[in-house]
Design a protein that fits this description.
Blueprint: H1 3-35, E1 55-61, H2 65-76, E2 85-91, H3 98-103, E3 110-114, H4 121-128, E4 136-140, H5 151-157, E5 163-173, H6 183-201, E6 211-215, H7 216-219, H8 229-239, E7 243-255, H9 260-280, H10 287-290, H11 292-310, H12 313-320, H13 329-346, H14 356-379
Parallel strand pairs: 1-2, 1-4, 2-3, 5-7
Antiparallel strand pairs: 4-6, 5-6
Helix pairs in contact: 1-6, 1-11, 1-12, 9-14, 12-13, 13-14
Length: about 400
């Protein structure tokens, strides 16, 4: 076999090997490992309201007037002791009435801090530190809803002195009859299950950006503004000697992005930030220092994100084998058809239902393209601190869910 043929087969094999490891072998290993460990059990809940710690719910928002009121309503309607609950909204120079909504909300527990200039979500999280109250900071997205009984379990996990971060469990919600992004729910469910297994092994390697809590002194750690704090926060906790855990009972309701066009933008942004964060936290993949955490960080994050550029091999590899194995050209053809499908679904009219025949493959190939864009941003050293929030639909669920 010639060197060219070897190269062709390696390019074809790379996505299979990486995908098989990331989505089959690694989850199987973590599941088996988790069975050898006891289930995570938080400390007992405080006996009365006065024993619960004071907390701050932190929301960084940019032009979220359509969604923010329901988010605030849900946060304040939880069964957490009212006199122990504060809410800080950091406005990233919103211009749509977000600031006025917060200032006129009518509850003294809800406060506003407006950034002096638009700087992006991570910069807002960095700036929030001096304005926070209490021992624990609960970070939530401006568009999510917290069920009534979800906040206490999240905070309860942090009553364990060994735990520095507790992550909630996302539940993806939306109108499946209308949206073209149903596959997002399946992916979110898989990710939440994997985090539960990682918790039993020791620590998760990334928190839910929609709903997580950490200790205030960990929240005060300043991070470069181009990073994803929800991802970095788990490693920050681990580097300070804490565990990071996932709490299945602490659910939050996350409206799905309604179109795959919006999903492309969201995934490109989140993976781009994720890759920059992984590079920044690369020392946590040293197994001699971080043990099982290093293995899970490399497997859950690095290998999974390496899969996206590896798919370029299916465009190139078969061309190197055109003489000896022409049947491999079906992979190149499949990639081309997939990319055309991705183009079709992201240009599909927002007011028309996406056909099921192309919705799922469209989601897969939109994810691949988003991964390519994220890697390209990293290689170009493009730093995008300022963000455009994903325009998720406003949920019509009642405030006292």
């Amino acid at each position: 076999m010639s060197i060219v043929e070897w190269a062709g087969w390696l390019l074809i094999a790379a996505p299979v090997v990486l995908g098989g490891f990331a989505f089959v072998l690694y989850p199987a290993v973590v599941w088996a490992w988790a069975q050898l460990r006891p289930a995570y059990t938080p400390p007992p809940a405080p006996a009365n309201d006065n024993e619960w710690p004071e907390i701050s719910v932190l929301i960084v928002a940019y032009n979220e007037v359509r969604r923010l009121k329901k988010t605030l309503d849900h946060a304040l309607a939880t069964d957490y002791p009212a006199h122990k609950l504060n809410v800080l909204v950091v406005s990233d120079c919103s211009s749509d009435g977000t600031d006025e909504l917060v200032l006129n909300y009518g509850d003294p527990r809800v406060r506003l801090f407006r950034m002096p200039e638009r700087s992006g979500k991570p910069a807002g999280e960095n700036a929030a530190g001096p304005h926070l109250k209490g021992e624990i900071v609960v970070s939530i997205d401006a568009s999510i809803l917290i069920p009534r009984d979800s906040l206490k379990p999240l905070v309860q996990a942090l009553l364990d002195p060994a735990v520095g971060l507790a992550s909630g469990r996302d539940i993806s919600i939306g109108d499946e009859a209308r949206e073209g992004n149903k596959a997002e729910s399946n992916y979110v469910g898989m990710e939440m299950t994997l985090r539960s297994w990682e918790t039993r092994v020791h620590s998760i390697v990334g928190a839910s950006g929609c709903f997580y809590a950490n200790r205030r002194h960990l929240q005060m750690v300043q991070l470069p503004p181009e990073l994803a704090r929800d991802f970095a926060a788990a490693s920050v906790a681990r580097m300070h000697g804490y565990r990071a855990v996932s709490v299945d009972e602490a659910t939050c309701l996350v409206p799905r992005t309604p179109t795959l066009k919006a999903e492309l933008r969201r995934k490109s942004r989140t993976m781009g930030r994720g890759l920059a964060t992984l590079l920044y936290l690369r020392k946590t993949m040293n197994p001699f220092v971080y043990g099982s955490y290093a293995f899970m960080m490399a497997s859950h994050k690095l290998v999974r994100w390496m899969l996206f550029p590896a798919f370029l091999g299916w465009l190139v590899g078969p061309l190197l084998l055109v003489k000896s194995a022409p049947y491999t050209l079906v992979l190149t053809l499949g990639m081309i058809v997939g990319l055309i499908t991705a183009r079709l679904v992201v240009t599909w009219p927002d007011d028309k239902r996406l056909p099921k025949l192309i919705a799922f493959p469209g989601y897969i190939f939109v994810s691949i393209v988003a991964g390519w864009r994220a890697w390209l941003h990293l290689l170009r050293n493009e730093k995008a601190a300022v963000w455009e929030p994903t325009q998720r639909p406003v949920s019509d669920m009642p405030a006292a869910q």
